[in-house]
Design a protein that fits this description.
The complex is a heterodimer of chains A (about 290) and B (about 400). Chain A has 13 helices and no strands. The N and C termini of chain A lie far apart (about 70 Å). Chain B has about 400 residues and is an all-alpha fold. In chain B, helix 14 packs antiparallel against helix 17 and helix 18 runs antiparallel to helix 19. The chains are: A mainly alpha (about 290), B mainly alpha (about 400). The interface between A and B is large, with 97 and 96 residues.
Chain lengths: ~290, ~400
Amino acid sequence: MTESGASLESLRALRLHRRREALKTALIHGALILACAACVYPLLRILAVSLRPGDRIISTDLALIPQGATWASYVKVFTETNFLFWLWNSLVITVATSVAGVALASTAAYAFSRFKFPGAKLGLSLLLGTQMLPAGMLLLPLFLMIMRLRLMNTYLGMVIAYSVSSLPFSIWILKGYYDTIPRSLEEAALVDGTSVFGAFYRIVLPLSTPALAIAFLFNFTQAWNEYLVARVILTDSFKYTWTLGLFDLQGQYLTQWGMFAAASLLVTIPVMGVFLYSSKWLLTGMTLGGVKG
Amino acid sequence: MLAPVAQVLQFALLIGAFVAVLEGWLHYHFKYHERNWFIPAAVLGTAALVVFAALWTAGGGVEAGRVVSLAVGTALAECLAALFFKHVVKGRHSLPFMLLAPAMLGLAALIAYPMVFEVYLAFHDLKLTTIMAWSRTGDLPFVGLKHFRKVFTSSPLSEVGFWELSLRTVWWTFINVFFHVAGGFVMALLLNSVTRFKGVYRMLLIVPWAMPQVVAVLAMRGEFHSQYGFVNIMLSKTAAWLPFLKDVGVGPVQWLGQHPFLTCTIINVWLGIPFMTVVILGGLQSISRHYYDAASIDGASAFQQFRMITLPLIRPVLAPAVTLGTVWTFNNINVIYLVTGQAGGTEDADILVSALYKAAFAFYRYSYSAAFALVVFLMLFVSSMVWLKWSKGSESLYD
C-alpha cells in the first residue's frame, strides 16, 4: 500500500517534471524561431520588394508575396542598368585578386612553417600587426599611387589595391595547415631525389588543397563584397563593381528600389550558398590560424 | 619632365621586381638557367609580357615611352635576376627568403611604402588646389606640423571635432562588442540546449553574416526609412492598436535623420551577433558534459555552473574572437558610411575611421587626413600595446 503510494507520488513528480521540461523546450524553440525570423526577415523583405509591380514599389505593404507579383524588376535590372557589366567587372577583379593572394600566401606560409630563419617571429607578428592598422589609413597613399600610375578605372589598379589586403590572414591559415602535415613525407621525397621546392610543389601543396580552398574562398568573399576601395578607384559606371552599382541604385531615387532589391537578391543567393556551404571550414581555418602561435 | 621619368622608373621597377620573383621560382623549380634554351625563351617571354602589358594598359592612355621603358626594365631585371640566382643565392637561408620574397615584395610595395608616403604627405601640403601641380612636378610645399595641429583644433568634416569623435569611437566599440558577445552567448546557449532542428536554426542564424555586407546594410537601412521601413510601420501599427502607448511616446521615429548613431548601432549589432554565436557555440561544444554533471551533483546552480565552468573554459576561444571583434568594430567604416554616407549626410554617427575616409575622399583634404590617420594609428598602437601587456599579465594569473 505504502509502496504503491510512493510510486504514485514519484510518477506525479515525474509527470510534473516532464511538463516543466516540455514547457522549457517550447520556450527555447520559440526564442530561437523569433531570432531566426529577425535574421532572415530583411532578406524576405527584399524578395517581396523585388516582386512588386511597378506602380506599387513604394508602399507600406508588409505581404511577403505582394499582390500582382511580377518579375518585371528582374527584367529591368538587366535591360535598364549595367548590371551585367558590374558582375563581370567584379568577377574579373575578384578572381585575379584571389589567385594572386593565394599564390603569394602559399609559398610565404611554407617558409614560416618549415624553416628557421632570422626574423621569422617578427615577420609573423608584423603580419598580424597589419590587421591593427586603422581602416582607410593606407587607402589615401594607395589611391594617390594608383592615380599617378594612371591605373584609375582599370582592373589592374583594383587588383593591386586588393591583392595584399587578405594576405596576412591567408598566410596564417595556410601556415596552421602546413604545420599539421608530417615532415616525414617531404623527407622521403628528398631522399628520393626531389629538390626542396619540388617536395613543396608535388607533396605539400596537393595535400593542402582544403586549406588552399579556404584561403581562396576567404580572399574571394573579401574582394567580392568590398565597397570602400572600389568607390575611390572606380568612377566610370561601366567599370563599377556590383557593390558600387547597388549603392547607386539604392541611393538616388526611391523608384529604383525594386531594381535594387532584384539585383541584391541575384547577387546574394549564390554568395550565401557558398558561404553557408563553407562556413564550417572557414571558421575552423580562422580559429586554427588565430589560436596557434 | 622629371615626374614622368620617375613615374616610368617606378613602373619599370615594379615590373622588374615581378619578373625577378618569377625568375626565382622558375630557377628553383626547374633549374632553367642551366638549360640551353633559356636565353631565347627568356627573350620571347619578355616580349610576350611587354605586348600583354601594352594591351592591358592601352585603355588608360599609356604612351609609347612607358612601353619602351617597360621593355628595358624587364630585360634589365632578366639579366640581373639571372646573375643573382646563378652566383649569389647560395646561403643557408636563401630558400625561405626566396619563398617569402613575392609576399614580402607585395607587402613592401602596398603597405610599407604607403606608410612612408603617408608620413611624407602629413608634413607637406596636398589638397585640391595643389594636386594638379603635384601630379605635374611631384613637388609639394613643406608645412611641418601644421596639419597635426589642425587635427586637434579643427573638424575633419564640417562640425564634429576630434575629441568628440574619439569618445564616440570608444563608446561605439564598447557597446557593439558588448552586445555582440552578450547576444552571441544567449544564442549559443539556446542553440546548445536544443537537439531538434539545431542545424536549421544555426543556418538561419548566420544569414546576416553570410549576406554580402553591402546588401545587408542597405537592406536594413531601407527598413529604417521613416515612412516605408518595417520598423516605423510596426511602430505606428502598435500605436494604433494600443493607444495608451502613444502617450508614452511610441510611434514612428526619424531614424536616419535624428538618431543615425542608434540606427548604425542596431544594424551593426544585428550584423555582428552571428559571428560570435558560431564562435561561442564551437567553444561550448568542446566543453565536456562531465563537468556539469559533477557540478550539479555538488548542488551548483545554473548560474554558478555558467560562471565557474562555462566562462573559464570558453576563454581561450572567446579571447581572440573578442580582440578580433574589437579591431573590426573600431575599424568599421562600412556600416556608418553606407547608412549616412550620401552627399550632405549627417555627421552625428561618424567615428574616427569613417571621418577619416570622408575627410579624404568627400572633402579632398589629403594632407590633413594623412596627419589624422597617423594620429589615429598612434592611438590604436598605444592602446593595443597596453591591451597586450594587460592580457598577458592576466593570463599568467590564470595559468
